[in-house]
Amino acid sequence: MKRFLKSNISIILIFIVGMLFFVGAECEKTKQPITSPIYGLDIDLYNHAPEALVNENVYIRGEVRDGLGALQSGIKVYFTVTPDTVGIITPWAITDTNSQTGFNTMVTFQGKKGGVALIRGSVRNEAGGITSSDTVSVLVRSPINQ
């Protein structure tokens, strides 16, 4: 009789553990994936031609739109210059739909030596991956007198 009870208890325990795995697997299937909002970034030069002299400031304007096309405030946009020897730029700014430039601060590029600077703005997700980017170029020239 004891042997019969032990085998039945074992079968019941195996059944319960199996059901727990099955229910857990079903719950995993119903979880919604975590997704980032879809953003579109657009940057350009603010009141400036695509050419500048060494040490001249060039301002960048921009806007970020969601997947439905609505302007977004409060989105962090990162900026880089390639090659980084041609100039320097504000590393990041927050979008502001009430600003003429679209950012909470002036995004400024300053050429340091002659060459073509590619200025890239990018929006990143929580993991640091780029979700949207845009690029503008500026030709940096030395003054004629030098």
Question: What does this molecule look like?
Answer:
The protein is α+β, with helices and mostly antiparallel strands and 146 residues long. The protein has 2 domains: 1-31; 39-141, Sandwich (Immunoglobulin-like), CATH 2.60.40. Helix content is 20%, strand content 42%. The protein is built from 1 helix and 9 strands. It has one helix at residues 2-30, and strands spanning 39-46, 51-53, 57-66, 76-82, 87-89, 92-94, 107-111, 115-124, 130-141. A 5-stranded mixed beta sheet has the order 2-9-8-4-6, with no helix packed on it. It has a 4-stranded antiparallel beta sheet with strand order 1-3-7-5, with no helix packed on it. A hairpin with a 5-residue loop joins β8 (115-124) and β9 (130-141). It is elongated, with a radius of gyration of 28 Å.
Chart the SSEs and their pairings.
Elements: H1 2-30, E1 39-46, E2 51-53, E3 57-66, E4 76-82, E5 87-89, E6 92-94, E7 107-111, E8 115-124, E9 130-141
Parallel strand pairs: 2-9
Antiparallel strand pairs: 1-3, 3-7, 4-6, 4-8, 5-7, 8-9
Task: Determine Rg (CA atoms, Å).
Answer: 28 Å
Poorly predicted ranges (pLDDT <50, ≥5 residues)? none
The number of E-state strands comes to: 9
Describe the sheet with the most strands: 5 strands, mixed
Mean pLDDT: 84
CATH third-tier fold name of the largest domain: Immunoglobulin-like
User: What would you call the structural class?
Assistant: alpha+beta
Strand order of the largest sheet: 2-9-8-4-6
Beta-strand fraction estimate: 35-45%
Discrete helix count: 1
Order of helices and strands: HEEEEEEEEE
Distance between the termini: 105 Å
CATH architecture grouping of the largest domain: Sandwich
Q: How would the global form be characterised?
A: elongated
| CATH class assignment of the largest domain | Mainly Beta
Count of discrete structural domains: 2
Name the helicity range.
10-25%
